């Protein structure tokens, strides 16, 4: 089927913004031109791609299917453009996916070192959960990710390298001073308010699986998307928080680690990239920073 690439490009911008006016701004063309392009594409495909109303635009089922294929293609084109710019030097851009916690407590020194060595390279960091980062990697929206592992969302095309091991711990504030120095079982711990990351995280999957292993139900008191906020809430006595050991404040009088009887398996931080997509020189140089880790 002979369809102009520009029609798919217009479709992509409308589908991702769900706005004809916003797409026209991003494409620097008139709104009527956007509308006409979508009509032409729908006619050539003999499918309705958008549901239009006076207040909003939404994708039809057929539009959602098309977007699943167009989005990775658009990301590959952008990646190719970036690599062409980057071909002669380590300039250009590197796109990294990682969580807020991993960025703050692990990646910052590596980002600082890379920036000093290659100041002309633009660094873009997309902060998402480890699960979402795996999706960004698979669809080509990032060049590499640094995430928690195990991560069941990695596809077969991802190359994964271990760069750090860590343990998860339960922490509490002075409101639970009676727990300091004691060793609790997970069953005993479950009677206290548990603070943890939300269900869209590998950490949540990990802790729920541990409770299931011992045939226990885990009903969190609070679920959040930030480990730092979990630590803050533990400090003020809202409950016992479950966080990676590397982000626990050292020598803090406001917080302490609650010891448990069961041994939790260690987890890993890994560096992953999509083997099916060629790496730019800048991405290779960044990954080389971890060769000595």
Tag the structure with descriptive keywords.
23% strand, Arc Repressor Mutant, subunit A, 10 helices, single chain, 293 residues, D-Maltodextrin-Binding Protein, domain 2, alpha/beta, 42% helix, five-stranded mixed β-sheet
Detailed description of the structure:
- This protein has 293 residues and is of the alpha/beta class.
- It folds into three domains: 5-83, Winged helix-like DNA-binding domain superfamily/Winged helix DNA-binding domain (Arc Repressor Mutant, subunit A, Orthogonal Bundle); 88-165 and 268-288, D-Maltodextrin-Binding Protein, domain 2, CATH 3.40.190.10; 168-265, Periplasmic binding protein-like II (D-Maltodextrin-Binding Protein, domain 2, 3-Layer(aba) Sandwich).
- It is 42% helix and 23% strand.
- The chain is built from ten helices and 13 strands.
- The strands form three sheets. A six-stranded mixed sheet has the order 8-12-7-11-9-10, with helices on both faces. Strands 4-3-5-13-6 form a five-stranded mixed sheet, sandwiched between helices. Strands 1-2 form a two-stranded antiparallel sheet.
- A hairpin with a 4-residue loop joins strand 1 (50-52) and strand 2.
- Helix 1 (5-17) crosses helix 3 (31-45) and helix 1 packs across helix 4.
- It is globular, with a radius of gyration of 23 Å.
- The N and C termini lie far apart (50 Å).
